[in-house]
Specification:
This protein is an alpha/beta fold and 279 residues long. 46% of the residues lie in helices and 20% in strands. It is built from twelve helices and eleven strands. It binds ligand C2E and calcium ion (3 copies). Ligand C2E binds next to β4, α3 and β8. It comes from Undibacterium danionis. This is Bifunctional diguanylate cyclase/phosphodiesterase.
């Protein structure tokens, strides 16, 4: 509180002008981040439930800024989307993760894949196919070496259009998976016709599954649904042995979460991969 000449107390808020200023600065910084080379990717391993081997790594973007520090995607992906610059960032992610996969394959990890997150706007623009096929060509990869993750809520915004867009991507033979499965209210009718190869069970369900509520039943039902549709299931956010054991028992194919590894820098991922080959 700030006291004024009249003796009245007034609560002092950061002014609206100050807020707008900060927001403009943040947006300007985000706009420049790509050309200033401030983004980097971390990679989180997805482990085969049956063999314990790393099958795939999910690319997760980070923004390292000189003033803001390390900025996590939850703080800028949505903003980049409203600013209309997500397609550029997304194209960079696709190129960079394909380059990294090619590097790992050259190191001898011939079966390894990468999983790449797509935003709503990225899915809708038709340049996406060109971006993906250009990256595949540049790094001599085939479509089936990469997987694109699209959240269920994005797909359900416009199911007809999504089916059409996913179909176009499937022509490149890339794998497609529904991210945050169970949170987007898909109807069973759509699930049946979406041309996807996998579900990623949302970490909210995994988190709750050993706590005695309904989450275990939801996980079990989602996994058996996927099996009936001939799809793979990836469980995300696996943090405890208990969750891992239950998910394995339920027939989940791939496990991802802090129990196995956090999102890793390239250097740390190299060490993780080398160790998992030995073990
Ligand atoms: P997501 O695709 O659902 O990714 C999973 C998030 O859960 C990641 O957060 C990951 O670090 C976190 N996580 C992984 N394992 C665990 C665990 O065991 N416990 C807990 N509590 N969390 C875990 P992150 O990296 O902050 O990414 C957040 C979201 O940002 C992602 O959610 C994704 O939607 C988006 N995102 C990240 N990278 C990209 C990108 O390159 N492009 C687009 N469009 N979106 C991205
Ligand atoms: Ca994801
Ligand atoms: Ca997810
Ligand atoms: Ca998520």
């Amino acid at each position: 509180a700030k006291s004024h000449g009249t003796g009245k107390l007034r609560f002092f808020h950061p002014s609206l002008k100050e807020n707008i200023r900060q927001r403009i600065d943040f947006e300007r910084a985000l706009k420049e981040a790509l050309e200033k080379d401030q983004f980097f990717l971390c990679y989180q391993p997805q482990i085969s439930a049956s063999s314990g081997q790393t099958v795939s790594l999910e690319a997760l973007i980070r923004w390292q800024h000189p003033v803001y520090g390390l900025v996590m995607p939850d703080r800028f992906i949505q903003l980049a989307e409203t600013m209309g610059i997500i397609a550029h960032i997304g194209a960079w992610v696709i190129d960079k993760s394909c380059e990294q996969l090619a590097r790992w394959r050259a190191m001898g990890y011939h079966e390894l894949r990468v999983a790449i997150n797509l935003s709503a706007q990225q899915l809708l623009v038709s340049e996406l196919e060109e971006t993906v096929s250009a990256a595949l060509q540049r790094y001599q990869l085939s479509g089936s070496d990469i997987e694109l993750e699209i959240t269920e809520s994005v797909l359900m915004q416009d199911p007809e259009r999504s089916i059409e867009r996913l179909g176009a991507l499937r022509k490149l033979d890339v794998r497609l998976s529904i991210d945050d499965f169970g949170t987007g209210y898909s109807s069973l009718a759509y699930l049946r016709v979406l041309p996807v190869q996998a579900f990623k069970l949302d970490r909210g369900f995994v988190w709750d599954m050993d706590k005695g509520g309904k989450a275990w039943e939801i996980c079990a039902t989602a996994i058996s649904l996927a099996q009936n549709l001939g799809l793979e299931v990836v469980a995300e956010g696996v943090e405890t042995e208990e969750q891992s054991e239950q998910l394995k028992k339920l027939g989940c194919h791939l496990l991802q979460g802090y129990l196995f590894a956090k999102p890793l820098t390239v250097e740390a991922a190299d060490i993780f991969l080398a160790a998992s080959l030995l073990g």
